[in-house]
Specification:
CATH architecture of the largest domain: Orthogonal Bundle
Shape: globular
Oligomer: single chain
CATH class of the largest domain: Mainly Alpha
Number of strands: 20
Structural class: alpha+beta
Amino acid sequence: MGEQKLTDTEREAADAKMVDDAFKRLLDSYLASPHRKKVDIITKAFNFARQAHKGVRRLSGEPYIMHPIAVAQIASTEMGLGSTSISAALLHDVVEDTDYTVEDIENMFGPKIAQIVDGLTKISGGIFGDKASAQAENFKKLLLMMSDDIRVILIKICDRLHNMRTLDGQPPNKRYKIAGETLYIYAPLANRLGLNNIKTELENLSFKFEHPEQYAVIEEKLASTQESRDELFEKFTAPIREALDKMGFQYQIKARVKSPYSIWNKMQQKQVTFDQIYDILAVRIIFKPKKKEEEVNECFNIYVAISQIYKSHPDRLRDWVNHPKANGYQALHVTLMSKQGKWIEVQIRSERMDEIAEQGFAAHWKYKDGVGPVGEISEDDGELNNWLRTIKEILDDPQPDAMDFLDTIKLNLFASEIFVFTPKGEIKTMPAGCTALDFAFQIHTFLGSHCIGAKVNHKLVPLSHKLSSGDQVEILTSNSQHVQASWINFVYTAKAKTKIQAILRREGREVQKRGEEILDEFLKRNSLELTFSVLDKLCSLHEIDKHEQLLQALGEKNIILGDQDLHELLGKGKKKEETTKGWLRYVPFLGKQKKGEKAKDNANANAPADYMVLPEDFNKKKPIYITDENIHQFVFKSCCHPIPGDDVLGYIDGKNHIEIHKRSCRVASKLKSSYGNRILDAKWDMHKHLLFDATLSIRGIDRIGMLNEVTNLISEHFDVNIHKLTISCDEGIFSGVFELLIHDRADLEKIIKGLKTIKGVQEVNQTV
């Protein structure tokens, strides 16, 4: 008994030492920063949080207080925040996880820290709850909190970063939810706030947990090509160093290597291999200005000097120095041709610009003169305030549908910017991809709703005309013009979308009311009542997604109710046969097929689907296995076309069926963010008994015998059946689409690799 007690005592002593050491590191990093040295308040917050979380442990087994310390450490060293933020980070879980209240925090630490802790408590537990509507509400809370004090979201990002760094302990379904949410919301949010390092790490960690094998492959390839990159960097920068030394600059030159996530993303988007990505290496020149007021000119002086050494790419000069991004990012980007025949991007920035690029708004505050305490938003922070104003405008008239609301936020907050001029020469920042109509709504709702066209650079253009940086735009209006439903298809900004939808909803409510009266009258005539079940059945019959759309169609007389509707409601209608999606045509593999013989569809492939229905008490932490025998029990959507060997996940839909998606699928990324509690870990357990459709597109330089060589390689060499073939040739360039029957991803990759070895073949891509 005594020995057990001693072991517990030793463990407590080891824990206490671990906590003390971690706090000492936090204090040391804070004392090394340029902030006012308010050690007392930080120590007080630490002691209070340590006492509040006493005896509580994380999943990893370490004392819970290690998490708040780690979050505070990130806030201090990686964001450069001061004592208020560090104290709030130490206290961020106290109100949620213990009996202490916000009032207790305010009494002990003052109103500012209490306000931040309150903000963090309100948006805790991940942005997203069990239901999408709750999740949208939480997201609105998050944004409203931001507009009170930006430090709420900065500390929330620190909290998420530490959770991502310690995600190993979570079951896979939870990992996919958290990683998906991080990619969908937190990484773009960090990017928008200019937190470049944190954005990159969040993306990489999400990628690592969702696609561990692909992450490991890219890491290994980066390591194996490190030596050749180092050599290229040294040879490329030697003459640049010489020129900068002659000019008398104090500077550093750093190599920036593209992150594994960025590389993988590019490989997916462009459907290229690792070896075909040419911008893995970039060079960063960070200089100390000789004179503070000459900082911008000196950026251009360096650019002139290095473009005399190397030829610059005429279309790849990016001037973020005179036109900073909305997140405050400033730098001059130029792409130069190295002596080795490779384009290399060079980023030129001052030390101040570099710090803002890495730490975003947190660093901005360090460079503000005469501003109040660090972190308080002042009128000087023009871009930041514009951003927060945009959020408030969106929140004034949010979408009723949670997913639309999230998409609207993402569209507006995470887009890159262009600069557009008014007729009087005022500059307006707009998201890239916006139209003349977006610009009209940006200026005023009245202008937008009565817009009939625009003059861009003095030329007449339609409402849907996409704007480019530097355009001068004059909006033309007419009092007889009204908002059209079709406008929603080409506007890009959140403000325009929300205003158009609000006006249409206002008008639509009257039409829906008329539709409801028509439906009510029809039901009463047939002794039925208006219920959700009735609306669901009619929506299903007319293939309409939402009740409002059905009522709208009835009000506009696009649907006339009749006998078919009555039969459906009384249960006399024929049930539509659910079938597996058209692309998923798997057939038994019965030995070797004769050459050229088309595989016959399994009789069950088009039979009514017998989907698995999950019981209420199903353990979501357990992985589900897709086998040759049970594959027909899962719902395969056509959005991403998963085949055996792809990284997949399961999603429990509204009918308790399991949908299978690729983890990288766009639809799945929304599901992970909004319905994280319905995500399942899914694994393949297939044994090459079934065949799946896969479509390859191929392009290359045409020559005699090319088609013969391609088809022979597929059918003879790989023994794969070509299900359908379309091919065309135009001015010596041939392009073809092959529909194949294959067993799994490994088969497909072998075929792609083989096709790329054929002389003249330039591109081989899988299409969904």
